[in-house]
Each structure stands twice: as C-alpha cells, then as structure tokens.
Model the fold of this input.
Amino acid sequence: MADVDVQSHGRRGGIVINDDWPGYSLDLFSYPAHYCGDLDCVFIPHGVIMDRTERLARNIMDDLGDHDIVVLCVLKGGYQFCVDLVDRIKALSRNSNHTIPMRVHFIRLKSYLNDQSTEDLHILGAEDLSFLAGKAIVGTGKTMETLLKHVEAFRPKMIKVAGLLVKRVPHNTACLPDYVGFEIPDRFVVGYALDYNEYFRDLNHICVISESGKMKYKI
Ligand code: HPA
Ligand code: MG
Done:
C-alpha cells in the first residue's frame, strides 16, 4: 500500500523531498575538488536526475500526441535540464513509431543576486515564440508567470511547462508546472546548471551550498 501512495502522490507534483531530508554525504560521491568546503551535501545525485528526466520525457511524449513542439529553454539555469530532456525525447523518437518534430529556442532570464530574488526580471531573446517551456527551477512562481504571459501573447496552440525542481516556498500561490521533476524544501541548491553568482554550474549533482561557500562567492 505504501508504494501505491508514494507513486500516485508523486505523479503530478514530482518526487517529493521532505524538509528533513539530510542529503547524502559528499564523501559518497565524486565532485570537482575546487568546490571542496563549499557544499553541505549532495541533495539529488546526478543519476537520479537523469532517471527522473527520462520518465518526464515519456510523459511529455504520451501527452503531446502528434503536435510539433518548440522547446523554449530558459537560460542559464535550465540549460542542462533542457539538454537532457530533449535528448531523452530524441531517443524515444528514434526508437518508436511515435515521433515528435522538435525545434529548440533559447531565452535568458535573470532575477537572482546571491541567493535572493531581485525585483526586476529580465527576459532576453524572446521574439517569435510558440512554445513548450523548459526550466530547471521554479523558485518564486513570479518568474514563471511573467514568462507565461509573454509566451501567451504569441498565441501558441498549447503551452506546457516542465520544471526540474519546484520549491515549497511559504505562501506560494503560483501555479505548478505541468511536468515536475522534484518538489524540494525551501533551500538554496546549486549544480546541474543552477548557480550561485555564476559558480557551481559545472557540478553534476544538485547540492546544498554551505555557509562558507556562500561567503566565498558572495558579490
Ligand atoms: N538555486 C539556484 N538558483 C535559484 C534557486 C536555487 O535554489 N532558486 C531560484 N533560483
Ligand atoms: Mg541563477
């Protein structure tokens, strides 16, 4: 019974990582030596991210039927998730009768300084859009809302949002992405293209940054 609960609970909102999840000790995994001392733990190992992404790709293929899709990759934090998701969709298209023609566009959003969301949100490179959006983290919801409004103005047939991570932020009323990898506690995570002041994008796992890591790379 427990298994059934876990699986059905996770289908829409993603794999739930509880507030008391301590992560894995860094000693159990490999990571670049230049980040030694800058991290508290491995929060989501790279292999788990890849396995979850593979399943999201299948869900997307199942839902989208025969529509052509335009993938909108939200840079910079979404690039790794987008690359891996597109890669999985390509693999499914190669290996079955169900194929989806896919185009990929890139836009850039910027709103974070240190670990705080700033008021002004910049969208760069967003002209001529009709889309499925791929974004690695949905932190405030404000980002997603702004982006969706922008994309809706181009009147695409359908818009679906895929987010690798959704944070349980207090009082968050924002809508959920259609495809969610993981629901995580309100902690600042880095790696797998997510940054802290541009550092840690070159880290495979999603990790929790340490206090000394924050100090070291603070602007
Ligand atoms: N890490 C990196 N970038 C982010 C985060 C985070 O936890 N939340 C929103 N943007
Ligand atoms: Mg960032």
Confidence is low (pLDDT under 50) at residues 1-8. The pocket of hypoxanthine (ligand 1) is lined by residues 77, 112, 137, 139, 188-190, 194-195 (CB under 6 Å).
